[in-house]
From TrEMBL:
Keywords associated with the record: Oxidoreductase
Limits of the Luciferase-like domain: 20-115
Name used for this protein in its record: LLM class F420-dependent oxidoreductase
PANTHER family: 5,10-METHYLENETETRAHYDROMETHANOPTERIN REDUCTASE, PTHR43244
Length: 273
């Protein structure tokens, strides 16, 4: 892989990350920030983050293929990668059908989008693909630097690595809540996890991972919430995140759900970096 991400990254909505945030993340040793909530357009905010840091990688997690044409995103990629070589990774994905009126045949649409990026000159090594199911995971391995799974478990990471094989990027996201009051941390985790239980692609993947209908109903079972949003002190959470690395991830991407994320980011950096 031409782009070195390091073993620990941060996932955060693009509108919650600024130059100061990026500089602090780099200082703590995080290798990359993945910008969520479908960043699009000219990606001008990426330049600001890269300008404020020396080695941090910025990735999109993800640009929604229904939102921006590949030629437009390719122009943004060319500008950023030209100014900051090997420090920008273009993560793309099909999102979920409930949020996109135009959502049709996502696999074919992903192939078409990757064809458009090829035509516009975006290199395979400079892009990654959001992938859950084996078919899209294989597409990620064949047509991009690798896969960026979201809302998964170490078991999914292990099976995804088997499909990708060696040498391809695997960077799963995992949510965490720092704290030792189980009722409080679980409530915080559930508030976020329950949103995804209304989205068919995530629910289908969770069923494949062995979660039952009872687990994915309503606001989610305690078992489900605890698996998808790691809770506890820093050492406990670090063990859960390390399970992804042990299962074959190159980088595990941490999404902190606490209102103030920095105590968790600092504590986990001390445990894992």
């Amino acid at each position: 892989m031409a782009i070195e991400l390091g073993k620990l990254g941060i996932w955060r909505s693009y509108n919650q990350v600024d130059a100061k945030f990026a500089a602090e993340a780099e200082k703590l040793g995080y290798g990359a920030i993945w910008l969520g909530s479908s960043p699009g357009g000219d990606l001008a905010f990426v330049d600001e983050l890269l300008a404020a840091t020396d080695s941090l990688v910025v990735a999109t997690g993800i640009v929604n293929i229904w939102q921006d044409a590949p030629a437009d995103i390719a122009r943004a990629y060319e500008r950023i990668a030209g100014k900051y070589p090997d420090r920008f990774l273009l993560g793309i994905g099909a999102g979920h059908r409930e949020a996109t009126k135009e959502y049709k045949k996502p696999y074919a649409a992903l192939v078409d989008y990757l064809d458009g990026l090829d035509e516009a000159g975006v290199p395979v090594a400079g892009r990654a693909l959001a992938a859950l199911g084996p078919k899209v995971v294989q597409l990620a391995g064949d047509r991009t630097a690798g896969a960026h799974p979201y809302l998964t478990t170490p078991e999914h990471t292990r099976s995804t690595r088997e499909i990708l094989g060696a040498g391809k990027l695997l960077a799963p996201e995992h949510k965490v809540v720092l704290g030792t009051d189980v009722a409080e941390t679980r409530a915080i985790g559930r508030k976020t996890v329950k949103f995804y239980l209304g989205l068919s692609n995530y629910v289908a993947n969770l069923r494949k991972l062995g979660f039952t209908e009872e687990d994915v109903e309503g606001e989610g079972s305690d078992r489900l919430v605890d698996a998808l949003a790691l809770q506890g002190d820093a050492a406990t959470i670090a063990r859960g995140l390390a399970a992804h690395l042990d299962a074959g991830a190159d980088q595990v991407i941490v999404q902190v759900l606490n209102e103030d994320p920095w105590p968790a980011y600092r504590a986990l950096a001390a445990e894992l970096l």
